[in-house]
Structures are given as structure tokens and as C-alpha cells.
Amino acid sequence: MKISKKDALMWFQYFADYAPEYELMPNQQEIVLSTLAQIERSIIKRDNELYSQINNLKSLQGRTYYVGPDDKFSDGCRSCLTGRGLNAIRKTNKCNVECKFCYNYGELDLQPPIGEGMWEIGGSKFYEDDIDILLSVQQKPTGVAYVYLEPFMEIEKYYGIIEKFSSAGVHQHMYTNGTLATEENLRALAEAGLDELRFNLAATNCSDKVIKNIAIAKKYFRRVGIESPMSPEYFDAFMKKKDSVLATGVDYINCAELHLNCNNAGNYYGENMYISRHGYLSPIWSHELTLKLMKIADDEKWDVVIHDCCNRTKFVRGLNLKDKEGANFGANDYGSEFDIVPYELLLPILRDENFSFIEEEELPKEYQPGYMIY
User: Is the entire prediction scored with pTM above 0.90?
Assistant: First the structure.
């Protein structure tokens, strides 16, 4: 079924008003899924057109796309997509900034602590002294990542555990907004054995202070990257400071496709959105900006990797992780952040006169109002 945009809007307006009150019937579910597919088909067509304009587009075994020198592609990303997955280590439940794109937006003060002196790995709690037994019992991961929320708020607590994983030969990377980085703690992190440091430059809208800290980090780390969700304000700020950012010697720029949950979706209310593979909800401009940046970098021959960390890449990440866990063929932890389809958030794109479906068909009678029971 290739539902028309007009019919899709009619039904989604109805579902936005009434669907939470009852479970959809199979015919209504078909209408919803057809609408999601119609929107996504148009987005995929547009993306493919943008990909075709990038002359030197590269792929990592077909799992993700990038431009730039192969030897600067992040080993952390390589571990995530081809190794034994992205093994997250959680410690710090606080942050010193509040970003509109944060998954914990509006709830930063409500994030539960991991536990005094403890680390969360694989959903379990460990003391630092437990890492030796963990590494001796379970298969050593190819890489780990320090996440949740801003580690530099208590960075001195990280040195010991980083040393343990470094001694075991495990690749390690860390995420930070960069505002609390100093020459001293950056040097200490590198000496402890951290392999990569990733700056979320969008968190400060490309502040000069953070750009300076990226340059300092490059003095101590073999690989320094930027990883930020793509948005119009970040893209504009980045382009204005492009030369100073590239002058830091940064190795790679991971362009994340912004995806939304119940916490941050309200900050983008009214934007055109789509749902990828019945999973992540994203504004349609996010991936478009990534591909625009990739083309600019390729045309201008930047000596840096621009990595397309889009919803498709996240889907592949889930496949790889489940495979390494020995899960059933086709298993994936990629999925929607919403309990039900967020109909209201998809109304703007259905109302947009400049957005069209590729092919439309008239609804069969049994799916039309008057035949189908509301």
C-alpha cells in the first residue's frame, strides 16, 4: 500500500487526537506503517541523491560511510561496527551544561548515581579492583567507551580504571563537552592510557575555549575527535569557525544523526521528522547536514575523516553487537524510543507542501473513512 500524503495526514491527525485511548486495529496499523514507509522512502531517495554528489565516498565494509584519510578513521568506531561492539562504562551522573539535544534533557538532576566507588559495565556494578577478575573471566572487549554524563566533573576518578584496561590492551575512548578540560587533566588521561578523546562541539556551539582544548588534547593523544549531533545551529557555527577547528589537528569528526526521545523531542516540535526502520525519530535536516558537510570536506580535501554516524549506522551497530553476543540471526537492540508512534510529531512533514511522496495510490475502500470503523 502506497498511501497518499493527503490520506496519511487525515489519518495521522485522527490518530494524534484519539489513538492513545485505544489499540489500533490491524487495518489502522497498516495505514500507520504505510505512512512511515512513504515518508522514509522519500528521505532515502533524497539521501541517495546527496551521497551520489560526494566524489570520494568510502565505506567501512559497507557498514558506514565516510570521507577522508583511511588511517584517521576512529579505532573506537571500528570496534563499535566490526569488533565486539561498543562496551559502555558509566560513572558520572551529572553534567555542567544542558543541551537541547540531550537524551536526558529536563531530567539532568534526576539521573541515578552509579554507586560510591563503583562503575557500571554491561548493566552490572564493579569496584575498580574487580576489573582484574572481570578481564580474567570474560572475553576481553575490543574497545570500551566512557559515557554518562560529563566525566570531567570528576575526572580524577577515571585514571585508575583507564590504567587497568590499558594494561589489558583494550582500546578506550571518552566523550566530553570539553569545557572542564585542562592541560593537566588531559595529560593525566593520556598518561593513564586513554586512546581517544571525543569532544561534543555542539554542546557549546563551537566555543573558542573548547576548540583550544581540542588543540591541547592533540598534544597528548594519538587520536582526537569531534562527535556531535548535526543541527542547523551547530552546522552554521562550525562553518564560521571551520579554519580554527581544522587547525587543531583533529583527526575525525563524527556527525551523529540527531534522534529524539520523550525528553528532547519537544525542543524540536514543528520540525519535519521521519522514523528510520520503525526505530529512531529524527529531524530530516540532521542527516542532510552531515552529507552536506561530507561533500564540502571532500571537495576541499580536508585532512580529517568526516564520518556519517547516521541512523543506518546505528542499526548496523546493533546488528554487530548482537552477533558478537551470539544472539539469534537478525537480532538487534535498535528500536524506537517511544512507546507508541508519535503521531503529532509527524504531522508537520505531512503538512509540508514542499515535501512529497515518491508514488501514491488511492486507499482501498476498506481503508477509507466510512468503511473502516474509527
Answer: yes
